[in-house]
Every structure is written in structure tokens, then in C-alpha cells.
Amino acid sequence: MIATDPSTLLSVQGLTQRFGGIIANNNISFDVKRHSITALIGPNGAGKTTVFNCITGFYPATSGNIFLFLDKNNKPIAISELLNRPFTGGAHQVARAGIARTFQNIRLFQDMTVLENLLIAQHLRLDKNLFRGMLAHQHFEKKEEEGIEYAMEWLKTLRMESHANRLAGELPYGYQRQLEIARAMCTHPKLICLDEPAAGLNPAETEQLSELIYLLRDQHCVTVLLIEHDMGLVMEISDHIIVLDHGVVIADGSPQDVQKNPQVIAAYLGTEATT
To answer: CA 146, 158, 177: angle at the middle one, nearest 5?
Structure first.
């Protein structure tokens, strides 16, 4: 059944993902509310990143449905339809529809400047192609200027404007993490999926990350879905938490409810759940 709650932005319904004889996700269902921070957590190997890969179009789901609700009439966009469009279907269509992501392993263009990384991310918005540039040079230049201006706004937000012309690979690790989020934001998403954004960060950098995630939600009206192992961060910032274990959902609720759930405690501590 397609979600009809107007507060729902993303609805995952009966998602199953198989790789040969291995079932990575088994009949997973959950909703993500608009302008919320939702965490997808679970032990290593629980199937979290596979869910992300299905939502963002990197894998076509074996079965089940994933719907994105963008317009005021709550008309659904099926991720499977975006992937299966003749000639044009693929993960880039999912990004164009309004879903952006970051990765557990940083995937910046290390040998390009910070500014260039943010400009490349805007190629969907810049309408940048050679033919149009030849026919409408002024239009081309205007879009280029807008792209640079928007990129610099993000660098100022992150207090990184002085690094604009520095190679991305030369940045300290914490800055690289923030730059990857800024690059995702340069696609103007409605939903941003952050895959372990706090991995490798020290406490001060983690605090900066939490401030940035709040800013995405509160000032840019972006819905945040994240995978994260830092439980302190998860419990601090999340409105809603879904817990996976061995490819199935074992808990779904508020941080207060989830941290008291016996199945969650058992999954993380290796103890038997009590009923």
C-alpha cells in the first residue's frame, strides 16, 4: 500500500535485496517524515548500506517498493521507475528527483580543488552542455556564475572559504567529511542520505557535524536519513530510529523507545532478548 500520510517524504515498503543465495534485506518497511532526522542503525552486516544503495538507485531492489513524495498532492515517485526509464534510467535520475547521498568511504575528487568539487556536483542544475553554451553564451555564463556563488555560500557556511582553491585531497579529514556533505547539498536535494558521516571524526568534529545536520534540517528544509555507529550522536540528533539486524527491522520508534528495546540491546550486546 502506498503511503498517504502527507508528512511522509520517503516510504520503503517490503524491500528485499538478494545477492545470489544471500538475503541482505528481508521485507523491510519504514517511512521517513519530511524535515526529520531519521537514523538507520544496527550491528555490522545488518544490511544498512544495502538499504541506502536501493534508496539511492545504486542497486535495483529484488522486490518491494520505494516511493518518494515530493509534490503537494503527495503523488508518489517510484525509485524503480526512475531506474527503468529507457535510455535515461539510473542513479542519476534518482539524484535528479531529489535524493543525494554521501559514502562511508570519502569519494571526493582528490586532485580537484574544493570549489571544483562543488561545481561538478551542480551539473544537473547548471544545464551545462556544449551545444547550449555555443548557442546561448550569456545563459551559460550566468549559470556558471550562479554555480560558483552557490558553492561559495556553502563554503562560507562551513567556514571553509579560504580553502576554495586548495586540492580536496589536501584537506584535513574532518573538512573532507564536511565537503562531501556540501557537495551532496549542491544538488539541491529534498532527502540527503549520510552513510556514517561521523566515522573517523574526533569529538570536536562530531559536534560540528551535529550542528551541520541540524542546519540542513532547520535552515535548508532538507530531510536527513543517516547510517551511524556513534550512538551518542544518533540519540542526540535523531527524531526517529530504525534498527536492523540480519537484514530485518527489529525496532522502529523514538530514541527513547529504541534504546530500551530488549531486541536492540540483544543485537548490540550479543545477549538473548527477553519478552
So the answer is: 105
